[in-house]
Design a protein that fits this description.
It is a single chain. The chain is of the alpha/beta class. Helix content is 42%, strand content 16%. It is built from 14 helices and 13 strands. α13 links the parallel β10 and β11. α2 runs antiparallel to α14 and α11 packs across α12.
């Protein structure tokens, strides 16, 4: 072995050892909440959370590798029974548009509720996937299975927005980070057809609009407890991280943009057959960043001036103070997409119904893999939160 090869090997070994040490150097949770007048049930959970520790899978050193596990195949068999909801066209006032991040008129469309096939009779837990997630996403299936196996016998149900989960797009109007009304109508449907309590778990983008829904509805929320995992809270800050950081700019922003283009390719014919006055399909196809994609299709279809206006309107941070039911946020310091440094900790301290947990590791994995077999850790946190607060 020549000297150069030996030095390269030593450097790689030291780098790997450093990443592993960084992953394991602190296993406790950073907990942020209102210390003086927090909801008693939230305080009960906080006491339990103080004893929690996250042990990341040892060979997944660093947030990037941990993030890559989000889409690793799930080997257990999760079966669903689909319920399709056909939504009518609906108009909104100027005041409603400010809250719901939507245009004057939202066209008709289709969403689905995929109910995991079980004999369970416990509370319903609606799972809200991330940006390009759906019922068959690995992290969604892992979460559904863990919820179904809990002693509370939860009934997992996955919400698939327009254009996802095999849902046909009927009109040139997709889902977004801030549009909540389709989800609201789905919750109203569940409430009128089921008697069990409704809880929810949201991931990434889905976590943002779940938290936004909780704040919009205040005490009228049909969801009585929510867990928001790895979600942006301040969307402009998220975009700042993606466009200025090296990993964000050269890895995750291009990756997420390509993922959105794959979504566009599956539903793009609708925008060509039923043109939207604010969308130039040819220009949309040229988008190379999330900002460009959102500026060319998401913002105009949601009634926003541009992408920056869309990010401002979409942020759940504006609604945190209004959340009236117990809500938990879970993030990882080494999340390369939504790093913990981007979180508005002061906002978390101003609402007694909110608690924020931050782990040292976990990346943007959604599941927080642990153990040699990468078992999901985050569902156990959600289950404990529901036990203490629901």
């Amino acid at each position: 072995m020549d000297l150069q090869s030996m030095m390269t090997g030593i450097a790689v070994g030291l780098l790997t050892a450093g990443m592993i040490w960084r992953s394991f150097r602190f296993r406790g949770l950073r907990i942020t909440y209102t210390e003086e007048d927090s909801h008693q049930k939230v305080l009960d959970f906080i006491e339990a959370a103080k004893g929690m520790k996250y042990f990341p899978t040892w060979y997944l050193a660093g947030g990037v590798l941990q993030t890559a596990t989000a889409d690793m195949p799930y080997m257990r068999d999760v079966k669903y029974k689909r319920e399709t909801l056909y939504l009518d066209e609906e108009s909104f006032t100027d005041e409603e548009k400010k809250h719901f991040c939507c245009p004057d008129v939202v066209p008709k469309g289709t969403v689905t509720l995929d109910w995991m096939v079980t004999e369970n009779t416990g509370p319903i837990v609606v799972i809200v996937p991330g940006l390009t997630g759906q019922s068959d996403s690995a992290y969604v299936q892992r979460t559904a299975m863990e919820l179904a196996l809990a002693r509370e016998r939860y009934q997992p149900c996955v919400f698939n927005p327009r254009g996802r989960g095999g849902v046909q797009l009927e009109t040139p109007f997709l889902y977004s980070c801030g549009y909540t009304h389709d989800f609201r109508r789905a919750m109203q449907h569940i409430k009128t057809t089921k008697t069990e309590k409704i809880l929810a778990v949201g991931f990434s983008m889905g976590a943002n609009y779940l938290a936004k829904y909780m704040g919009e509805e205040k005490s009228k929320s049909l969801v009585e407890g929510a867990c928001c995992l790895a979600g942006p809270v301040d969307c402009p800050e998220l975009m700042e991280n993606l466009t200025k950081g090296v990993l964000g700019k050269y890895l995750f922003d291009p990756f997420l943009t390509k993922s959105l283009h794959r979504v566009r390719e599956t539903v793009g014919r609708v925008f060509e057959e039923i043109p939207h006055p604010g969308v130039d399909v040819d220009e949309l196809k040229k988008a190379t960043t999330l900002w460009e994609f959102d500026n060319r299709v998401t913002a105009p279809t949601m009634g926003c001036r541009d992408a920056d206006d869309y990010y401002d309107q979409s942020s759940c941070m504006r609604f945190l103070e209004h959340i009236s039911h117990p809500t938990m946020f879970l993030h990882a310091e080494n999340d390369p997409i939504v790093p913990a440094r981007c979180l508005p900790y002061l906002h978390f301290k101003q609402n007694p119904n909110i608690v924020s947990l931050v782990t040292t590791s976990g990346g943007h994995s959604m599941a927080w893999p642990t153990g040699t077999t990468m078992e999901p850790w985050s569902p156990s946190v959600c289950i404990e939160f529901f036990r203490k607060t629901a």
